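re: that complex we talked abt at group meeting.

here r the seqs, copy pasted straight from the sheet so there may be weird spacing, ignore it
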Amino acid sequence: MKNAINKTEAKITKNKLAMLLISSFFISGAALADDDDCTDPVSEWQPREQLRQIMEDQGWKVNRIKVDDGCYEVKGVDRKGNRIKATFSPASLKIRELKIKFDMSGDASDYLDLGTPMTSMQSESNPSQNKQKNKPKVTID
Amino acid sequence: MKYLTMTLCFFCFFVMSNQTSARKITLTTELQNYSGDGAYLAIYLTNAKGQYQETLWIAGQKSKYYKHLTGWARGSRMRTSEYDGLTGASVTRGKTLTVTLDLADSYIDSGFQLKIDTSVEDQRDNRNDVVVPLTTAGAGKPSAGRGYIKAFTYVL
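got the structure back, here u go
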């Protein structure tokens, strides 16, 4: 009788262990699903060629476009020769992440306007600093 | 009352000084009737030594072709900050591009030059298609271009 009770207790603890293992697996799985993933429905995805065209219009050279975590991941070189890695939403083609390696030049003028605080301090005597940024009126007849 | 007069004086001075610092300029560029696609144009200012100062207008929207506007590309180093908000459509043959903008007074009659570089797909690039000194005397007088430009006139 006592043996039978011991056996059922052992069975219950085994079942509990298995349940615990399975539930921990699901929890860790949930934790691995990152916030950075793209969740656009596949039916709304834009073609890769369109993204390539957008990048090339910016003067970037595209080496590779792959799908990672539901997003388009682009590797290439910007127009100044810096290596870039960018992530885009596949439906809207909006940029979500951008990594740039400024290897040689260290010229970040395309991305950061580092000269801004200085120009506001320049005197008006130098006309080149006195730039007119009003939008011109343009017609083609 | 005294304060009011002084404030008004300051206000008037401020408004007047602002008005005199910039002047409206209209740049009219007429293209030749060449055979080919729409032309890309870079209209920019250089000093008397030919050093790049400022971009006035870029006709042509694809930045990957801007390197063909060679003089401008070298001067501006094709920085987006140089041409942000100053780009538009390319100009087809026989058409006239008219650009009206505010220009700092200090550029006029001070030895600065207006330059235009042009380029057409699969055809030659023209650095300095037009080069004219920016003077009040030269305003309204048409200048002939060397490449795709038939005539260029600026009016102050």
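couple things i noticed - The longest strand of chain B covers residues 22-31. The two ends of chain B are 40 Å apart (CA to CA).
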